[in-house]
Write a structure and sequence with these properties.
By secondary structure, this protein is an alpha+beta fold. It has one domain: SHC Adaptor Protein. It is 36% helix and 40% strand. It has 2 helices and 4 strands; from the N terminus they run ααββββ. Strands 1-2-3-4 form a 4-stranded antiparallel sheet. A hairpin with a 2-residue loop joins β1 and β2. The termini are far apart.
Length: 106
């Protein structure tokens, strides 16, 4: 009976840990990365193109409108790699690509 209670407690603890981890999952990391980057570089984010789990947090690739132009297809955008920790706190960022909105990847 005691072993059964311990087993149930372990399962409950594991489920609780999974819920906490999912609450701080890729969606949280992406939102936190966008918010932090916008605050630092003062350019609006357009979206997120990738989120990768890492040992110490997340790597999020954020697409940013750097220079709006008319027509919109000539606007300049950039992709930034943003590293955030488990809690969504910014660790570092760097621009990895700059491109015209209408251009396709090679």
């Amino acid at each position: 009976m005691a072993e059964e209670r311990r087993s149930h407690a372990r399962k409950t603890s594991t489920a609780s840990t999974r819920r906490t981890a999912s609450a701080r999952g890729p969606e949280h990391a992406a939102r936190a990365a966008c918010r932090s980057l916008e605050g630092l570089i003062d350019h609006p984010t357009e979206g997120v193109s990738a989120v990768t789990r890492q040992d110490d947090g997340w790597c999020v690739v954020v697409d940013v409108l750097e220079l709006p132009r008319i027509p919109d297809t000539t606007s300049l955008l950039a992709s930034y790699e943003v590293q955030v920790d488990q809690n969504g706190e910014l660790l570092e960022y760097r621009r990895v690509r700059r491109y015209r909105r209408g251009s396709a990847d090679e």
